[in-house]
């Protein structure tokens, strides 16, 4: 979830505190951004030869994903009438429905939170709905909707206004925008995803799933973490372009109040630009037609295409990598990392990471602001092990040249891991290999 860098600026709080994030209130505001077709980085780095040995301790995180032949979908034998709550005409539309159900996953610990991810194509007016169900102490839960998604808004030719779903809570769990969270005293011992593919009745405009997964976690309620050991990326900095969200203040306020709230789409845009996968000039023409002097229209483009109409923000976690995965050859998912040592594995493999942080002014030296929730990109590490970031808040200065900053390793780790639970967006070309995950409780 993404937030405005200044609590008093941008849109109001829309997401509750997640219990496993050590009780840190994260107020959602930032969005995601598409990137220009910058030149691609150097050839993919080779994956490590062996799986690293991390001490996972009491930070239980696991990620499970299905793709390819594992995503065989049955026939369109179901039917649903759906009224888009953001359609001014309130017209009910009919859909043929096909369903994919994941195998049951038993993570080996009682999970308290789960965030799903999906990469899908939704041609025409088609769309997908992603849900989760599970068991708590042997008793089956209901099904919780984690998102209703399509690539484009209806005004762009898409099927629905993409949205999370509020007011799903019961005694066992609830959904905070994009995150399933169990109630106090409850855990889930197993989970199972359900994806419904919605095809306008009588047409062949059917969605296609490319990957579906979820990160499950059970994290300690610890206000601080110790400085992690330096990893394999010391002294390596990736050449990720710098975009400032501050340059977009006032742009298209119908999508989360404009640039002041667009840290998530701006961060997503920087990563897409690094991979040379941003939108083409003709795709962003609607931005430059309205704002002829705009030099980074990919950010505005992304904010529109990750916007969650119920959340009223551009910081829905899975919507950002799902948007990134609509770019040719790209893949994206959400997970949690346990430390910057794990983050260094990605930098060593040539993969920047979008991270979710929150902090009071002065708590992260060099930022120049405080935030109740914000996203930025880890692009590298100094030889001393400190974190090199592309921070789209850019010291609250409207200048792309202010975006690159170095943050103290221990300070950064403590505004990231205890507060968001170590959330990251992993966005990379499908052909670019990920580093090998930990052997014990792999979290990617």
UniProtKB/TrEMBL annotation:
Transmembrane segments: none annotated. Residues 251-393 form the Peptidase C39-like domain. Residues 1-37 form the signal peptide. Pfam families: Peptidase_C39_2 (PF13529). Keywords: Signal. This is Peptidase C39 family protein. It comes from Terrabacter terrae.
